[in-house]
UniProtKB/TrEMBL annotation:
GO terms for cellular component: cytosol. This is lipopolysaccharide heptosyltransferase II. It comes from the Bacteria. SUPFAM superfamilies: UDP-Glycosyltransferase/glycogen phosphorylase. The gene is waaF. It catalyses: an L-alpha-D-Hep-(1->5)-[alpha-Kdo-(2->4)]-alpha-Kdo-(2->6)-lipid A + ADP-L-glycero-beta-D-manno-heptose = an L-alpha-D-Hep-(1->3)-L-alpha-D-Hep-(1->5)-[alpha-Kdo-(2->4)]-alpha-Kdo-(2->6)-lipid A + ADP + H(+). It is an enzyme of class 2 (transferase).
């Protein structure tokens, strides 16, 4: 591809991480507004990047998860070589993703040390100890490794066209003019991150009791369907107001539904960070993870955490077997935080 040099961003594999990497692109665009930015992302994460204003082209990776596929990466790198990249920012910390810009002959390759990637990454950054929160972690790549990071970083931001929002709401049965509260009861990381479904169900009852015209949308992947079924089963007399859309929406549709939600209640998950970047009122529920490491950034946001002595353990399953960090965070506590937002 002829013309001006371009920048390649190699995306993280997690939805929330991709959202929190958006300020890096905002900083890059500020420093060189003429430079086009492409993002290479897994298909599962690509819809997030299509909602990022600074992205010109989203390229979807053809690789299998966790597989090296060296010959396939070589073939894909040859295609990237034709696009004329001047630099690449490798956000995953693995060798296999650093291979692609190196094989493509991109001269400046920026990233963290990761899996001993000397040579593959030739502008090497090193993380602080303890690790920085995710937004400054990625944003630091916009500067030289020897330069200090600015304190006033941009917040993660996504945008969705209004007509897309209207189409998706109509397609999935959201009533015209009705307040939609979105719940994200799942968490890809593991069960320890999930607030109990009975608490979500009780919270839905409180919402509908306070506003009988409200609807509650349960969002998530097909894997989250059993959890969302439990939420609906625990919603009692608010069951009629539940839209159980887990596994029924693609990610771009979920993003559109969240974009005009009256509020979003979510575990520490990708949908939480999408809601934050869309600047929706957010109630974020933290159990085994650190609420200070990846907080919501919307204008109206609350982070709820019991901050028990055993937290944050950062484990997929509760190592003590009681899951008190989520079990003891009752629906009444969540409702006290959520009600002023509504």
């Amino acid at each position: 591809m002829n013309g001006q040099p371009r920048t390649l961003i190699v995306s993280p594999n997690w939805i929330g991480d991709a959202v929190m990497a958006q300020p890096l692109l905002a900083l890059l665009r500020q420093s060189r507004p003429e430079r086009q930015i492409d993002v290479l992302a897994p298909p599962s994460v690509a819809p997030v990047w299509r909602a990022v204003a600074q992205v010109d082209t989203v390229l979807e990776t053809p690789f299998r998860h966790r597989a090296l596929q060296l010959s396939e990466r070589w073939k894909y790198a040859k295609l990237l070589r034709e696009r004329g990249y001047a630099d690449a920012f490798v956000l995953p910390n693995t060798i296999k993703y650093a291979l692609i810009p190196w094989l493509a002959g991109i001269p400046r390759r920026v990233g963290y040390k990761g899996e001993m990637r000397y040579g593959l990454v030739n502008v090497m950054h090193h993380d602080e100890v303890p690790p920085r929160p995710m937004v400054p972690f990625y944003a630091a790549l916009a500067r030289d490794p020897s330069e200090p990071l600015a304190a006033d970083l941009p917040r993660p931001r996504l945008t969705v066209p209004g007509e897309q929002v209207a189409q998706v709401r109509a397609r999935h049965g959201v009533g015209e003019g009705r307040a939609l509260v979105a719940f994200a009861p799942g968490a890809e990381f593991g069960a320890a991150k999930r607030w109990p479904p009975r608490h979500f169900g009780a919270l839905a009852q409180a919402i509908v009791q306070a506003n009988p015209s409200a609807q509650v949308a349960l969002l998530g992947s097909p894997k989250d369907r059993p959890t969302c079924d439990e939420v609906a089963a625990n919603a009692g007399d608010a069951a009629h107001a539940i839209l159980n859309l887990a596994g029924q929406t693609k990610l771009d549709e979920a993003i559109a539904l969240i974009a005009k939600a009256a509020a979003v209640v979510a575990n520490d998950s990708g949908l939480l960070h999408i809601a934050s970047a869309l600047n929706r009122p957010v109630l974020a529920l933290y159990g085994p993870t650190d609420p200070d490491h990846a907080p919501p950034f919307s204008d109206m946001a609350r982070s709820l955490s019991l901050r028990l002595d055993c937290a944050p353990c950062r484990q997929r399953e509760c190592p003590l077997g009681h899951h008190n960090c989520m079990e003891q965070m009752g629906a009444d506590m969540a409702w006290r935080e959520l009600r002023p937002m509504l």
